[in-house]
Specification:
The chain is elongated, with a radius of gyration of 26 Å. It has helices at residues 3-11, 17-34, 37-43, 50-57, 78-88, 106-125, 139-149, 177-183, 192-203, 225-232, 294-297, 315-323, 449-459, 462-471, 479-484, 490-498, 507-518; strands spanning 66-71, 96-103, 129-136, 160-165, 204-215, 235-243, 259-266, 274-279, 288-292, 335-338, 350-351, 358-362, 367-368, 371-372, 384-386, 395-397, 401-405, 418-421, 430-433, 437-441. Helix 1 runs parallel beside helix 6. It is an alpha/beta fold. The protein is 33% helix and 21% strand.
């Protein structure tokens, strides 16, 4: 759609907030169809639907008479339009809005300019003065260089009262230009969206507020821990909303991702509480809402700074029960690591079947009903690793280990899937665990058999799975996540393990065992 078509579309709609939003959303649909899918993937472009944009704009407090507003990565201006429409609909409107919109894609600048022209018409009609400027360039570079050049603090006239953003979602390599720019202001992150959030946070004025839609992935895991610490050093969450249905927020783009929308304020005062809510999608009228303390969202003393999002009170008993468990992993004298075999780096050592001079190689497909079943003739995955000096560092001594899948399939009923590797079932002095597995060990060696069975039973309980979902919105289970859990005491693990026979009990029976042994009066 060219600009002439855009102007024709404008003339079809009368002025006003509703027509502004309808026009912009139709443009979004048209532009999305014309964008090169490969370029969208490279740039991480997902234009924000009007329903989502208005949901976000409705979260702002924005009580100042003059609002300095930032829209980084503006695209065609969906979020800017939603912000202006939301302010125009208020009974107590701001006197003026000073809007700065960044966009790096030259193919979208014309559409963005047309959107902001429509925004001026809407704001004029509402009696709100709008001053809007477009910065045709890289927000991350401009923001990071501005912050680094002024000791991380922009001038007062460069600070913003409000920021609304749907940041680009794209991984960034360690040696990339983006990582270098972010390191200049003390940010370490592996995804572009977290970089946008970090720079935006630093550009806010004291008390300034940010509303963003992002993947939930930054809430836990080791990759985003440095970013979480950076962000939480100056920002406090005020509202967090979860879309339960992963395919609703960006349905037009067929994006399958668990997203959250949050409002955070630049302050170190945690305040009275955080409003946590959930719905299937932005148009769902059935919204579950509760208020929790900021300490319940991010636990004091949590060295990993996990963010626990529990939209309803039903999650509180789970959290409280987990909090009553007696031991940390370190207090048990146990550790958890990621499997050492990265198969594409060890192709020459992989063997389809075990034979002379090989060691068992365990993949997630070998985890069956609580135990490791090896070899597995039903899988295409290798079953063995050739012994050689280069393989020595990939092996661990035979023993009882508890294995946990790092990635669970969407159709699996549990996120945390654990199984026992029992050396009695495998005639081998050493064993290799593939990189898609985490393994529990005791100083690099196996565990006592009863402890291993008890630990696997506990990890497979509904309690652990439900608790894990409170801070993880994806199907990945990192070793860091497992280290953050509380665990039953050693004697409780032993007692639980002694009740596990040659096969693990059904889920209901297993949960009852955990209840009886771990939570007995």
């Amino acid at each position: 759609m060219d600009l002439a078509g855009m102007k024709a579309l404008e003339r079809q709609h009368p002025s006003g907030a509703d027509s502004l939003l309808a026009t912009v959303d139709q443009t979004r649909r048209d532009v999305t169809k014309r964008l090169d899918p490969r370029q969208r993937g490279v740039m991480g472009q997902f234009l924000t639907p009007t329903s989502v944009a208005m949901f976000m704009a409705g979260m702002f407090e924005a009580r100042k008479p003059v609002l300095r507003v930032l829209d980084p990565g503006a695209g065609i201006g969906c979020l800017s339009a939603a912000f202006v429409a939301a302010m125009a609909r208020r009974s107590r409107r701001p006197e003026s809005i000073i809007l700065t919109a960044y966009e790096i894609d030259p193919n979208l600048i014309g559409y963005l300019r047309a959107t902001l022209d429509l925004c001026r018409e809407t704001s004029d009609e509402a009696g709100v003065q709008l001053e809007a400027r477009i910065v045709a360039g890289d927000f991350l570079e401009a923001g990071a260089r501005s912050l680094a050049g002024d000791l991380f603090t922009p001038r007062a006239d460069e600070r913003f009262d409000c920021a609304i953003l749907n940041p680009p979602y794209r991984k960034i390599r360690t040696e990339s230009r983006e990582r270098s720019l972010l390191r200049q202001i003390g940010v370490e992150t592996s995804n572009l969206y977290a970089g946008f959030l970090a720079v935006t946070a630093r550009l806010l004025a004291p008390g300034g507020e940010m509303v963003a839609i992002t993947p939930r992935s930054f809430c836990n895991g080791p990759y985003f821990e440095p970013f979480r610490r950076f962000f939480l050093n100056t920002m406090c969450f005020r509202r967090v909303h979860v879309f339960d249905a992963r395919d609703r927020a960006f349905a037009d783009d067929e994006v399958l991702q668990e997203n959250i929308v949050f409002r955070a304020e630049r302050t170190t005062d945690a305040g009275a509480g955080v409003v946590v809510s959930a719905s299937l999608g932005p148009d769902d009228p059935d919204v579950r809402v509760r208020t929790i303390s900021h300490d319940d969202l991010i636990r004091p003393g949590d060295r990993h700074a996990f963010i626990h999002i529990v939209p309803d009170g039903g999650g509180d008993p789970i959290r409280q029960r987990m909090g009553k468990l007696k031991a940390s992993l370190a207090e048990l004298g146990l550790a958890v690591s990621t499997g050492r075999v990265v198969d594409f780096r060890a192709k020459d050592l992989l063997r389809a079947k075990p034979g002379r001079n090989t060691a068992p190689l365990i993949y997630p497909c070998h985890l069956q009903r609580g135990y490791v079943e090896w070899p597995n003739g039903r899988t295409r995955k290798p079953n063995a690793l050739a012994l050689s000096p280069r393989a020595d560092d990939l092996l661990v001594p035979a023993g009882h280990y508890v294995l946990v899948k790092r990635f669970s399939a969407k159709e699996e009923p549990r996120r945390v899937v654990a199984a026992v590797y029992d050396p009695a079932h495998v005639a081998a002095d050493r064993v290799a665990f593939e990189n898609h597995l985490n393994y529990y060990h005791q100083r690099g060696a196996g565990l006592p058999a009863s402890v291993a069975k008890g630990l696997a039973a506990f990890l497979n309980s509904t309690l652990v799975d439900s608790y894990f979902r409170q801070f993880s919105g994806h199907t990945q289970v990192n070793a860091t996540d497992l280290r953050s859990l509380r665990y039953p005491a050693w004697d409780e693990l032993v007692a639980l393990g002694r009740r596990i026979g040659k096969s693990f009990p059904a889920q209901g029976e297993l949960d009852q065992l955990v209840e009886e042994i771990v939570f007995r009066a």
